[in-house]
Amino acid sequence: MRARENPVLKLGAFLLAVVTFSIAAMMACYQMVNMNVIWGQTSAAGGYTTRYLESQDLQQISYLLDLTYTEQELGSLSSYEQQMKSDLEEQYKWYKTNLRWQLLDPEGGVLQGNSTQARPTQPEGIYWGEYYVSNLEMDVRNDVGTRWADVVDTIRNPPASTQRVESDTWTQELSAAVQQYREDPNSVDRNAVYLDGEGKGDLLRIATQFGVFVYAPSVENVISPNAFGYQYDLDAGGWTTNAEDGWTEGAVALDLVLWLHESLGVEGDAYSKAYLGLNWWKNHNVAMLVVNLACVAVGIVMLAFLCVGAGCRKGTEGVYLNWFHRLPGELILVALFFLAGYPVSWLVEGSLADMVYVQMPMQMQMLMVGGGMAAMTALIAVLLITVSARLKSHTLVCSTLLWWAWGWVKKILGMARRTIPLVWRVGMGGGLYMLLSLVLLMSNAVFLWVVVSVVLVVYLCSWAHCWKQIRRCTGELLRGNLNVQISCHHMPHDLREHAQQLNNLGKSISDAVAEQMRSEHFKAELITNVSHDLKTPLTSIINYVDLLKKEPMPNERVEEYINVLERKSNRLKKLTEDLVEASKASTGVLSVELRRLDLGEIADQALGEYEERLQAAGLAVVRTLPDHPVWVMADGRRLWRVLDNLLGNCAKYALEGSRVYVELHYDDKSATLSMKNISREALNVPVERLMERFVRGDESRSTDGSGLGLSIAQSMTELQKGTFQIEIDGDLFKAMVTLPLAPSEELAEMKG
């Protein structure tokens, strides 16, 4: 059993992928929420766990403050509340926790806390909160006759500056100081108080349950309101208030600040544990990152193994698809989408908790992320397995509802296409486009109309391109290129059918030509074999006839019989030789050796050979040959056989007492030798038929001849890369042999 077919290994790989991705997600979550500590310069006291602990302690301290102020207001608490107050006070004593806290008044003074010392400039793990007071009471009045020195040491808001300006013209001096401050802020002490010559001034006294606040006129109080919203107005000569800029009676929020002691001297509390744990991770950040990445790598390998093993089953050849792999793909996606809702929400809530709020313990956050990632990994693994199995079996697309629906649509469209003629379909398409254009333009959807028009133009251009391909390939077929094939991919249906018909037509013609070539080859082979079989007895007959002629004849009739036998046997021999030569010439079996030949000289020699025979037939030869060589590329033996057949036909079939015209012409590329004569018999045979084998000009066949001469002449001329043509005009017969000239430099020599 191969590993990918083992169900136990597959189950183990599935579980290992879930576990490793969950671990990696939890480690990544821890690093992400503590990113500024682990990979930055922030102290471990600024970690997520510390902020969470401080948020929880903020609620406990707020409850402690509620109990404290309730006891002050009512004078006593219930036994349970008193016990809770005592426990909280004991819990947050400075020597039992590393947490320091202070409740600040409107001016930043400390109202309550487990540390009365000034807060460090840059405290570790500082956390700002708010404590809401629902019943703030304020007694506001002006103390004009009170000396500033008598109250400055008893108020909750001692001035930030000890400088005093005492003068009977303090209002003018304050106005000048404000103007100077606006021009140059560094030239004036904005917190200096301005009083009259006796040290008294227009003081503002605000008494609350947290203490008494007294404000004297100063540059600071002129340019900006105080914590209670009061501001000194030089123009009005007194204090004015704006309730929106400061505290008023009723509910107010006081700053409650928390931070960690620098030395973390209290061992074993939650803050020291969180600090030490995060500090250890910070010191081993690279190693933990490697472990995190290793978990991800192992998970990916396990998922890859599951994908490889998808569809594999012991004892089953090919891809095995169970019932789940046969379900429509859309149903699986919808089910996975709904099942993934909770895991995704866990992942999002767990990963982004520190960005939105700090109300979740680090352990809970990591459990949410790990659980969400485990569920997501399981769902993704199931999806990858079924997708891999469908890809292997080539059913990924065809196993969807959309594919089935598209199949029905294609069937309906196919039926409509076969039923409705092409002209009607084009007309319906044009009418639909016109109607759609009218609706879009009337709806001012010009952009959509442009898009539809562009799509239509692109389709028409594609249709025209396909039609151009069909026309080009049709031209190739007409030129004899039967191997041309039209690519039917991405063609419209009607053009694709037409292209397939042309492809089939070319193939049919090629098959027919090949069949004809096989038939011709078989015919030539049959003729060759039959001629070879006839040659041996025919040779014996001719030899014996020759022997009989040498014996004394008993009478003249026997001698006449022997002459007839000799004449017919020789004719049969000539016919057999012509048959063999015609079959070899038509099949290209004859060897050809092309070389430079003087066509005029060869024509002159052939006429010399046939001079007596032509004279005996009562024919006069009229020659029109150039007086210089006409060099052509030809085979001397094959060319001689062509001229021999033509002159032989002249001697057999030309009208007695007529002329035979022999002419030689040439141009820059070829030379043409033509022979013309008047036929003795009427030429009622078409030119094409006259070139066929066993066809003779005299239908009565009263003369000697096999009807193969012209066919042999044509085949041999074509073997020499030339052309052979005949023309008939009434009884005028004309044959033309055209051969290519020798190379150009020799042609130049001829013309010179």
Written description of the protein model:
With 752 residues, the protein is of the alpha+beta class. The strands form 6 sheets. A 5-stranded mixed sheet has the order 13-15-16-18-17. Strands 2-1-11-3 form a 4-stranded antiparallel sheet, with helices on one face. Helix 11 (341-351) crosses helix 13. The chain starts with 6 loop residues before the first helix and ends with a helix. The protein contains 24 helices and 18 strands.
Keywords:
about 750 residues, alpha+beta, 18 strands
User: Which consecutive residue ranges, at least 5 long each, have pLDDT under 50?
Assistant: 353-358
Largest sheet: 5 strands, mixed
Task: For the largest sheet, list the strands in their spatial order.
Answer: 13-15-16-18-17
Shape: elongated
Number of helices: 24
Taking all residues together, what is the mean pLDDT?
83
Helicity, as a percent range: 40-55%
- Count the beta strands: 18
What is the percentage of strand-forming residues? Answer: 5-15%
Distance between the termini: 91 Å
Structural class: alpha+beta
Rg (CA only): 59 Å
Please sum up the structure shown.
By secondary structure, the protein is of the alpha+beta class. It is built from 24 helices and 18 strands.
Question: Which helices and strands appear, and what pairs or packs with what?
Answer:
Blueprint: H1 7-33, H2 35-38, H3 48-74, H4 79-91, E1 99-104, E2 110-113, E3 124-136, E4 139-143, H5 148-151, E5 164-166, H6 170-183, E6 193-195, E7 203-208, E8 211-215, H7 219-223, E9 230-233, E10 238-241, E11 250-260, H8 270-283, H9 285-309, H10 329-339, H11 341-351, H12 353-356, H13 362-392, H14 401-419, H15 422-442, H16 446-478, H17 493-550, H18 556-587, E12 595-598, H19 599-609, H20 611-616, E13 620-624, E14 631-634, H21 636-653, E15 659-666, E16 670-678, H22 687-690, H23 709-719, E17 723-729, E18 732-740, H24 744-751
Parallel strand pairs: 5-6, 13-15
Antiparallel strand pairs: 1-2, 1-11, 3-11, 4-7, 7-8, 9-10, 12-14, 15-16, 16-18, 17-18
